[in-house]
Amino acid sequence: MTQHKIALVTGATAGIGKSTSHILAKQGINLIITGRRKDRLVELKEEIELKHSVTVKTLAFDIRDALATEKAWQCLDDTWKNIDILINNAGLAAGLDHLQTGNPDDWTQMIDTNIKGILNISRLVMPRMIERQTGHIVNIGSIAGKETYEKGAVYCATKHAVEALTKGMRIDLLPYNIKVTAVCPGMVDTEFSFVRFKGDEERAKNVYNGLSPLTPDDIAETIWFALSRPSHVCINDILVMPTQQASSMYVNRKTS
Ligand code: NDP
Ligand code: 8X3
Questions:
Q1: How many CB atoms sit inside 10 A of residue 243's CB?
Q2: Ligand 2 centroid distance, CA of 145 (Å)
C-alpha cells in the first residue's frame, strides 16, 4: 500500500490556497486545510473528497493568534502531525494608504497575519520535519516583497519579511534535508483586492481593468512545479507575473 503524503495549506478558503488544495489532492496528497471561515473549509473538504481519493481535515482558526493556532494543531492525531508539505499562504493587504495617513489597525492586521502567521504555524510543523529529516515549505511571497510601491509600504514590508523568513528557514533547516521555496506572484484575481478595499467590489474590480491577471490556478501549478522536482533540486524563488505587468508600477492596460 502506498502511503499518502500530507500537506497543510493555510488560507485554503479562497483564492490561491483553495486552488493549491485542489491541485495537491489531484496528486493524491492528504490535506489539512485551514482558514477562519469554517463553512468554506467544510464545503471544500466535501468537494475534494468527492473528486479525489484523499482524506481532508479542516482546522478553523485565526493564524494571527499563536494560542489558537497551537490549540488547533493539538486537535490533530499524531500521524497527521507528520506534515510533508507546508504551504504558508494565508495573508492579506488591508488598505492602500500613504504611511503618513495609514491606519495602525490595518498595519497590525497585515503584520500579524503575513509575518506572525507564518511563524505561528511553522514553529509547530518544523520540529516533526526535522525529526523525520524530510519536508518542503512553500511561502507565498509577492512582487511586493521585491519592490515597494506608493501607498503599499506596510504590505510591502510584510512581504519583504516573508522573503527574509524564507531565506532564514532555508539556512536554519539546511542540516535536515528540508526544502524551502518562495512563490512570489504579481496580480492574481482572487478575493485579495476585495479584502484590501474592505468589501468595495467596484474598487476591487478596477484593479484588474484592461488586463488579464494571473489566476489562482496559475499559482497553484507553479507551486506544484516546485514541489514535484526531484529530491536533490530545491527551487528557491519563483517570481510569476501577468504578461501585462512588468513591475508593481508598470502595467500595460488595454482599454478601448
Ligand atoms: P484571498 O483573499 O483570496 O485568500 C486569502 C486567504 O488567507 C483566505 O483563505 C483567508 O481565509 C486567509 N486568511 C486571511 N487572514 C487570515 C487569518 N487571520 N487567519 C487565517 N487565515 C487567514 O487572497 P489570495 O489567495 O490572493 O492570497 C493568498 C496569498 O497570496 C496571500 O499571502 C497574499 O498576500 C498573496 N499574494 C496575492 C496576490 C494577489 O494579487 N492576489 C499577489 C501576490 C501575493 P479566511 O478569511 O477564511 O480566514
Ligand atoms: C499582491 C500583489 O501588486 O498588490 O501581493 O502587491 S500587489
A1: 10
A2: 9
